[in-house]
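Reviewer has doubts. Consider these tokens.
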Amino acid sequence: MEGEIYKARNEIKNLQKPNLMNRVFSLLISVLLLTSCGNDQLILPQSVGSFGKILVVTDNSKWQGDLGKEIRKTFGRLQAELPQPEKLISTAQVAPVGFTSMFKSTRNIFILEVSDTTLVRVSRDRYARPQTVVYATAKNEEALLNLIQDRNQEIIEIFRNADIKYLQNIFSKKRLNDSSYKTLQNLKVSLTIPEEYRKVDDTGEFLWLRHHLKSGIARGTGSNNILVYSRPLPVEDTIANGIISMRDSIGKKYIQGSK
């Protein structure tokens, strides 16, 4: 009798083991599903794209017409007072039918749509992260053109501020300790400086930091430079006109060149 009871108990245990494993497996699947549904951020891919560049999603006919010309003209204005020509924002275009998953991971996207509602709307982290998607909608192409003409500066600032925030986040994670620079201490300022920069000169009145480029078309001989100095504030409406001459005078005094 005891042998039969022992045998029955073993059979019950064997029956219970698969059920237990099934329950554990089901519980794990449920947790994963709940996690995915509860936080879409966990499954978004990392965004890609150059700084100062946006992907415009619109029909090829609109891009080749007045709408595209307006975007390229206003967004592609040259930034003032730089030693080389640089656009405010560079643009690339893709038709809606070609706006696939490969393009949806772009960090800055500008979508033009025909709709009954006229508006400019911003969506963050729509397809990837970090990501800024700006929608411009109007009832027809002419209305879209008017909308872009009226609000182009606002749209440009949305993308530029998003790029600045992204760069600030990167730099804050790998910033230099700037407390040792005499010029910054004398000016009573602090800067978030990426760790790739090295000191060239620090006189107490002039700070020069340089980062030699290791990639891109300027790699090897190219460099990014940070110059810090102070000058009396002139009449406000003459500031823009005086930037180049002021920069030249600083360069002549502190930066020796071959010519």
Summary: The CA atoms of residues 23 and 64 lie 59 Å apart. The mean pLDDT is 84. The two ends are 108 Å apart (CA to CA).
